[in-house]
Amino acid sequence: MIVGLTKNQQIPTAKMNRNSGRAIRERIPFSAQSVFHPVDRDPVAIIESQNYFRIPELIPLRHQKMTASPFAFFRGTALLMANDLSHQAQSGIHVTICGDAHIGNFGFYASPERRLIFDLNDFDEAAPGPWEWDLKRLITSVILCAHDLGFDNKKIREVILQTAAFYRKGLDLMSDMTSLERYFILGDEELFLKSFSDSSREEFEKIIKKAKKRTSNQVISKMTETDQFGRRVFIESPPITTHLDPKLIDEVEQYFRQYLKTVRPDIEMLLSQHVLTDIAQRVVGVGSIGTRCYLLVLTCEDASHLVLQIKQANESAITQYNQKNFTTPDTLSHGLGNGYRVVSHQQILQAASDPFLGYFSASEGMDFYVRQFRDMKGTVDLSELDFEAFKQYVINCGLSLARAHVQSPYANWINGYLGTDDGFDHAVLDWCLAYSEQVYRDYEIYKQSLASN
Q: What InterPro entries does this protein's entry cite (predicted)?
C-alpha cells in the first residue's frame, strides 16, 4: 500500500531510517540479543499439534524422517522455533520473512527467462515477521548441519561469523542502492560460481549441470508410463507416489479450474492448450510430510508435457506467534487464504519467481498453491561439501537472505540497528550456539516419546 504524505511532511530518507534503527540499539542492545532464554514448553506437544491437518497414514513416515538426525528434526520444527523466538529479545523491526530459512531451503531454480538462479526456495511459512527470526533459524541450521558433517567448533564459529557478517554487509551494500536497483538484483549461476575457489567451483558446476536436467521432460521419462489409451500416467511407488480415489480426482480437476483464474493471462492461455491426463499424490520434504501434495501431468497437442505440483498451505508458524507493530508489512490483509499468502510472499522474497504460481481454496477450509514441479530445481547435497565449499555456500545463503529482507520498507532500520562493526555477528553466534543445545535436547525428548508409544 502506498502511503501519502500530509502537507509540509518531510519524506523519510535512508539516513533518517538508519538513525531510527540506531536508536533501537540503545534500547535493545546486542548483549540482550545474545542471550537465549529457555522456554517452558512441551516440544512434542507443539510438534504433534500440527498433525490435525496431515494425512494420518503418513505421520509415521514423518516421524521416521525427523528422527534421522538433529538437523532433520530441526527441519520439521519451524513452529517450535517460532514459539521459542517469540520469547527472546528482538529489535521489533519487521520485514517480509521466509519463516523457515534453514540452509536446506536454499537452492537453484529456473527463472522465467530460463536462467538458473540461487535463492530461497521454500515459502510455506513466509509472512511478515522479525528479521532476526530468519537469520537465527539460518545460523542455527548451519551449526546443526556442520556438526553432522564433523566440522570442529573452531570452524563452525568461523562460518557463523562470516555468514552473519555477509548478511550485515550485504544488507548495507544493497541499502545504498535505489529501490529499483535492489528489486532487480539477480543471483544467477555465474555470480554464484564466482564466489568459490577453483576446487569448490567444480563441485557446484556439477550440481548446476544436474539441476538443468531436472525438467518436466525428465519427470515424464522417469516417473510416468503410457497407459492403454496412450496417455502419460504416473508410475505407482508407495508411499512416495500413489494414485488417488476417483472421487478425489474429480475434486482436484474442479479446483484446478479455480487455479487458472489466479495465474497471468499468458500462462492461462498456455495451459488452455493442455489436457490434464493424470493426478497422483506425492510425499515431499521433511516438514511437509503428511500434508496434501499432488502432481499433475498435462499434455499438449504437440505431445509435449508439463508437470505441476499442488501443495497444501496451512497457517504460517510466524503468524501464530508474531505480534504486529507499525513496521509490519501489510501483506496479510487480502483475505485470500494461505495459498495466496505463500504465493505472494514468494514473489516478494525471490529475485524471480515461477510464472506458474497460483492458488485456490478447497473444501473444509483447506488452502493450496500451485507451481511447476522440478523446474530445474537443484538442492545442494551438503554432505558432499568440504569445509571451504560449505562455508562459501552458507555465505551465499546469508547474502540471499539479505537480498530478500532488503525489499521491505523498514530494511534501512535493520541496517542502522546492525551498524558497521561485528557486534551483532558475535551476539547471534552466542544465541544460536545456545539454541542448538536446546535443539539437541528436544531431539532426544522427541525420540524418547516415539519409542515409548
A: DUF2252 (IPR018721)
